[in-house]
Design brief:
By secondary structure, this protein is an alpha+beta fold. It has helices at 26-36, 42-64, 69-79, 81-101, 153-219, 225-260, 265-268, 285-294, 296-317, 359-425, 431-466; strands spanning 107-115, 121-123, 133-135, 137-149, 322-331, 342-351. Helix 1 packs antiparallel against helix 2, helix 3 packs across helix 5 and helix 5 (153-219) packs antiparallel against helix 11 (431-466). It starts with 25 loop residues before the first helix and ends with a helix.
Length: 470
């Protein structure tokens, strides 16, 4: 039996209106049938329908998959302009190494010269000291120059360039850590705001039910108008809470969208709760030592100090002699009685700087002062890191303790609210006591909902301060 040939076509990514759905739309099914109809049997038509269903379900599942924190980080690192800027600066610094290293290699240049003086011989009577006789001639050739030694100046210039490159790389790592901290903070802020909005919506539903019951009792003269008004105030407060939570959520979504460089993905993909952070160390002393060894900002200042010291040595060595080899050779195409057809010469040149108006000493002094500035900045950074690590550890410990405290607070607030509602239903208390209990329970539930996210944020800040957030 000869098998029919199937025309290739793109399987749909969703339904016809662009919305994600687990079932394909009618247009998708009709398109599959139109493609298959000329060549496929009824069995193959059913097969294509199954493929369309599976493809649409797979695309819908992919579109609705939660956005993980790792994915958000990767998107930010790929698209954020600060990351690009830092990486480009690191590449620029690498070119400085190539430029400094070029001093070790010979310099080769080609020359072509044609001179016409209007006479067979003329003389230069002013200007620099040179051969005063000028002949009409033409020639082509090449010159070669090779540095033999400059007594360490080129080596120090290379060391300075390498140190600047290390500083640029450390700056790129610092920028990366800052972006990751901002992404983590915005990501967790979205989750926290969403949790607060959920609490607010549940609070509104409960208070609306209390208001409806209070209004019915007031209409039957079993409750006063004051009770009804207070119940309405509770409903309005819940609505204000929802409005504030929605504003915070949209602000957090805007911040996260700006960081990851995608304004649409957060509208279709929910956020996934990150894994539980690692256990918090019992003491901050090991964290301080870890930070002093890994913080990229400290590595940058140390590299800048090394570069300044190397530049100072290079400026000092500029006053030392320079020994180089020079060679030249070429061909004179037009015969001249004063020149041979070919020429070649070579020699050794010793250059000893004697006086430059204090230029070299001033450059050395400038570089030494820059090294002192970098050393002072390094010490200040060490002090700042030591302080920030301890403060971040204390904040993380406090945030961890708040998780247990808010859980106890919520338990007691729920119990108090249950008692207040029971007394209110029995007519033993007024709406004032019920409202106070509701406010306490709402506040406790919000505090408990946000305590975990606050601890995660503080844990990220501690990782940033120790240099482990990379």
């Amino acid at each position: 039996m000869k098998m029919p040939r199937f025309s290739s076509f793109w399987l749909p990514a969703g339904n016809c209106r662009g919305a994600v759905s687990l079932r394909p739309c009618e247009h998708d099914m009709e398109r599959a049938q139109r493609v298959c109809a000329p060549t496929a049997t009824n069995g193959f038509r059913v097969g294509y329908r199954v493929i369309v269903l599976l493809c649409a379900a797979w695309n819908a599942a992919a579109a609705e998959a939660p956005l993980t924190l790792s994915e958000a980080r990767d998107m930010a690192l790929k698209s954020h302009p600060r990351i690009t800027t830092a990486q480009l600066r690191a590449l620029i610094a690498q070119q400085g190494i190539m430029q400094a290293r070029a001093g070790y290699f010979p310099t080769l240049a080609a020359n072509a010269t044609a001179i016409y003086s209007g006479e067979s011989v003329t003389r230069i009577a002013s200007g620099q000291i040179s051969n005063s006789q000028i002949f009409d001639h033409t020639g082509v050739g090449a010159t070669l120059s090779l540095l033999v030694t400059d007594f360490g100046r080129t080596a120090n210039l290379n060391e300075a360039a390498k140190s600047r490159a290390r500083a640029a790389e450390a700056d790129a790592l610092a920028t990366r850590a800052q972006i990751l901290l901002q992404v983590d903070g915005a990501y967790l802020e979205v989750l926290k705001s969403n949790a607060v909005r959920g609490v607010a919506e549940k609070t509104l539903a409960v208070r609306q039910a209390v208001f409806a019951r209070t209004r019915a009792l007031a209409q039957n003269q079993l409750r006063s108008e004051l009770d009804q008004r207070l119940a309405q105030v509770s409903v309005d407060e819940a609505r204000l809470l929802i409005d504030a939570a929605e504003k915070d959520l949209q602000s957090a979504l805007t911040t996260l969208s700006n960081l990851i460089g995608d304004n649409a993905i957060l509208n279709t993909r929910p956020l996934e709760l990150p894994p539980v952070p690692a256990a918090l160390p019992a003491d901050f002393s090991p964290l301080t030592a870890l930070a002093l060894a890994q913080r990229p900002e400290l590595a940058r200042y140390r590299a800048e100090a090394d570069a300044a010291r190397a530049s100072a040595r290079a400026a000092r060595d500029a006053r030392l002699p320079t020994i180089s080899i020079m060679a030249a050779g070429g061909y004179i195409p037009i015969e001249h009685p004063q020149f041979d057809t070919k020429y070649a010469a070579g020699g050794v040149n010793l250059n000893l700087p004697l006086f430059a108006g204090g230029l070299y000493r001033s450059r050395q002094r400038e570089a030494e002062l820059q090294a002192s500035v970098a050393d002072a900045a390094t010490q200040e950074t060490i002090n700042t890191i030591t302080r920030d690590v301890r403060l971040a550890w204390l904040e993380a410990v406090h945030a961890r303790e708040r998780i247990g405290l808010t859980a106890s607070l919520l338990e007691n607030a729920n119990a108090a609210l249950t008692l207040a509602r029971a007394r209110f239903d029995q007519g033993l208390t007024s709406t004032v006591e019920l409202t106070q209990a509701e406010l306490a329970q709402t506040s406790a539930e919000i505090a408990q909902s946000t305590a975990d996210y606050a601890y995660r944020v503080r844990r990220d800040i501690l990782d940033f301060q120790t240099g482990t957030l990379r």
